[in-house]
């Protein structure tokens, strides 16, 4: 029996009518590489984009660079961040750059205005230009620069796929069981971006969540997930659902979003992961789908789900802030619960 | 044989991999109410949103209000507009409001910063708050207020579905052959927004394009389409694809976009229309799909299509403005060319 490429993830309703629809693929995996639930085709290959940041930050810890530079959990959370350019993000990134003897101009990511609106407006009012420091990936880039400093790599060209700092990242993915010679795209921030199937992404993320790796790598994984879980306001920003969900679940559910509506959730206590992609790349369906999956699989309680209702079924308002519609996730019933063979590794 | 709800509209490619996908429904109709081509289910009901603005502006002309207030083609183009809040939009809207003895505070649309970035940044730099005048629908609202003044209706409550100015609009849709008692949602700008099937939307738009109506209504339709075709920079804004396509086709293709990726094209010379909805509401697939359909149906020449290549297959860049991907529309082959009975009215 053929698996459908996509399943319905959410409906966007206005009044009584469904106005728009989002499809997607989601895979729940454990650290043994088993897919324990799924919707849509787990073999679909796409880019996890910034959902790969915890993997990109791993060399920063396991190389000893984080130790050598005495990086705090906030630094590690920022290395994994798609941040919103708020003061707490850019001040830490600037101090960190200075500590490793780098300048903002060493960051390969181009300039970007903060995604945090108040901060953006404040900059525009002050006549301040957009900068690479405010780019949502500046923490990740600073992490790569730190690895370069610590390992004695040239900083020049660190954005290129053949640079040793990128090779560390690719080798790590292979170590975790990802296919070798992954197709590479270029990310919005100029770094190489590997393409993986949803199934493979979920499998390596479950190993990351469970700390299933030899030597000091397991401890490095745990340190990064704990940093993201303890300081989600550094990995995302004020008011971001990552903060609310980490708090509501007592840090049991830590996730990292990626551009074009990717999401990768790490559940360290369960040793599980959820990889999720909204087919059309629209992020508005991503969090409702995540919460619905967590609820369907009983990974969060009814009470936890209720405390997240505003993120689970976001209300759509008009320009006078009156409610006119709602995003309603699919039910994500465990349709494949009894047929694990269709999705096994 | 069952028609699929959606067909593929466009792929979003990054490097060698398809990163995201857009599905949709499109219907091409003539003024006899015949569907001459289609992709996806023409019976799908959704909201045309701002694509209805030419219909909403019709009472402004046929009531005699436009004549009485000596409105120019630019005024009519603005009444049909989802504008970008540039100076030429807001100055005309402000002068028009003053001419009918109204204030900005009479506009029911809430405040909005201009969608035109330079104008928005200029306002923020000047410490200027967002206003209803800058809302992309301020021209439509001023049109409704003008009808109220001319017909002696109360201005109070013109945003409500039972207000006589809204009833004029609903009656017009019924006159053109739309089903009666359409479901109503509330638009982003607070006005009632009717839901129609793609097929019905295309049929009434083809009648509009062909001026297929009794009395002075036909002339009113022609006047509005000519106004939009001659002054697309008032109906949209600087650099908008509506301007480029109107110019490239010698005003043969005039279209009006709506929120959540609706598009309604009027081809007055051919007496045809195209109604198009990207299923997920993402507007980036809309213009590539439109141009691909125009090309597949030979409604534009190869040379015209080539002059629009930047809109037909938009390049995706990273934060350093380097090309990293492309939006690639489906081929839109006329799969139903020989089976018109599947889609006839």
From TrEMBL, chains A, B:
Pfam families xrefs: Asparaginase_II
Name this polypeptide is given: Asparaginase
Organism: Pelagibius litoralis
